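so i finally got all the pieces together for this one. its two components total, 428 residues if u count the protein bits. some of the lines might not be protein, just check the labels. i wanna see the whole assembly predicted at once instead of chain by chain like last time, that was a mess tbh
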Amino acid sequence: MKSLEEVLARQPFLAELDARYRALVVGCARNHRFPEGAYLLREGGAADEFFLIRRGRVALELAPPGVLPLVIATLGEGDIVGASWLLPPYRWRLDARALEPTVAIGIDADCLRRKCDEDHDLGYEMMKRFLPVFVKRLHAARLQLMDVYGRA
Amino acid sequence: MNFVDPALPHPWRVAAVSRELADTVTLEIAPVAGPTPSYVSGQFNMLYVFGVGEAAISLSGNPARRGRYTHTVRGVGAVSRALASMETGDTVGVRGPLGRGWPLAAARGGDFVLVAGGLGLAPLRPVIYEVLAQRKSFGRVSVLVGSRHPEDILYRGELERWQADRDLDVQITVDHAEAGWRGSVGVVPALVPQVDVDWGNAMAFVCGPEIMMRYTVTALREVGMDDERIYLSLERNMKCGVGLCGHCQLGPVLVCRDGPVVRLDSIANLLGMREL
């Protein structure tokens, strides 16, 4: 059985992260298994743990009142679930639900934030990894907003 | 001398109509008289609805099939709505096949990625038929399909059959879905990094709304593809269809004559130009 450190070392998200920083991240990490349909996080809940998907697929959902929940994105192996842990008030803005049995690494958000505060080099390494993920999602959301197929 | 006037529409008969989506149909048409010229995947015909007008519509059937042309039409304007409401036995004028198609021969021997958005799957479907007919001539083949919503997925039954077929890697994503949808939600360019091909030797054919193609090109460049290995099918409002009127001009490119399929490096700087 692989250790959590070995598992994290194989994640593209943490590729080329210095072993000493990886050890700091491992100190905040634990394994999770989510059955199909289980929620990884719920809108309004405390953003105290985010996830790195090892296997499986997760839907990000918004639930407007009176209509069926809308899936705004699906995530898979290697993807990060959860951004609101980065900024106050540290509350989730959407739901994340497992579309199939999903294995993920949970990272204690408070633990990682504290370590980043203590060691800004770690904080910078994390920022370099998270920012591209969220910028790509912002670009994708813009393209979705354009509703390009409506005029194809 | 066997001279065919490209400006003269020939009468063809609608032989079959199948509804694909609420506003989209596939027409099978057969010539009233004379032969059915062969075509290259990616070419188009000018279809003339008498008394209404003419529109450029891609050939979307199997090029190996003789005696009929297949066109998938979405009713969005006067002509396309008239085409989409045609019934078996109706007459349609045909000029074509016209334009330059996909350079399938150039893709042989390597990995191959097709990226389609919305109705952009129609001009790529003939390529898929050809690839399946000559499967051993290609390496890994991925078909990435983006749609607005699960109800808008074109050729859904066929895509699901191809998904079950191990000869092709077919990935479908939609921009929006309700919670019951079990497939992928996200934009089609986001599928590109997930494809398992040798990008350095792969070929990519892309067809869809222009903004979707721009984002897809960015994604293909990010995974290491050169512009020389990326082909796009452009859409412009065509009139003459043979490079005389300039209606479909994109900079120095006359899309009807020099395209609709073009290699990216021939138009790369023109794609994002607002004035065009």
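The beta strands of chain A are 29-34, 39-41, 49-55, 58-62, 70-75, 80-81, 95-98, 102-108.
Chain A has a mean pLDDT of 92.
anyway lmk what u think
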